[in-house]
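Consider the tokenized backbone below.
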């Protein structure tokens, strides 16, 4: 999208020179026309014009409060193009962070998912949390792809209660283990799993994009 946009030498609002993402708000017809060019040449999948439409990058332009509008409008324009599928490019940032900008958000998502998945099955936990987590990620300018992976994997960290896994329930019913046994061992397993997951989500996964 960025290369195509520069072909048209767009005019940017004051203080937003080079901020291609703001064009979905200020020049939507231009963005829509570019999407249609891709579709007319045979593209079935196009990406939204949201490469830097996150709070971290938009802070450079003082536009962080417009992130939700940018993503919403960008998705709307892409759908209007007639493409079969619309994809978002994920989280990108002009700034560099040592451990990853979404570490704190992923940590909260993981803890929330673990808490819920210890009271119901993993599938049920994801079904309940997915709409909330993904929408919150977009609004907060976080990476919904990363948050989704963290949530899905964390749902398997139900080590703390017999109700978390069908296999745990069967073992508990045998009478050989008490609920406190699951908690005692499960806390250590959960902490180890959480540390590994957060490391991968902020250090390894971004390299795959």
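A designed sequence for it:
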């Amino acid at each position: 999208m960025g290369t195509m946009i520069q072909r048209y030498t767009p005019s940017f609002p004051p203080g937003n020179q080079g901020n291609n993402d703001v064009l979905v708000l200020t020049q939507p017809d231009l963005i829509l026309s570019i999407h249609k060019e891709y579709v007319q040449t045979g593209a079935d999948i196009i990406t939204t014009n949201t490469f830097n439409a996150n709070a971290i990058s938009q802070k450079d332009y003082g536009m962080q409060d417009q992130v939700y509008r940018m993503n919403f409008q960008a998705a709307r324009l892409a759908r209007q193009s007639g493409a079969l599928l619309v994809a978002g490019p994920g989280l990108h940032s002009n700034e560099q962070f040592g451990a990853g900008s979404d570490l704190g958000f992923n940590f909260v998502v993981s803890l929330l998912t673990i808490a819920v998945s210890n009271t119901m099955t993993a599938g049920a936990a994801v079904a309940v949390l997915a709409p909330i987590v993904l929408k919150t990620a977009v609004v907060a300018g976080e990476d919904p792809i990363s948050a989704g992976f963290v949530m899905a994997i964390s749902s398997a960290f139900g080590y703390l209660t017999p109700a978390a896994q069908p296999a745990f329930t069967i073992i508990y019913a045998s009478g050989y283990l008490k609920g406190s046994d699951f908690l005692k061992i499960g806390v250590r397993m959960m902490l180890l799993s959480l540390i590994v997951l957060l490391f991968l989500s902020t250090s390894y996964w971004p390299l795959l994009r």
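Residues 90-101 have pLDDT under 50 and may be disordered.
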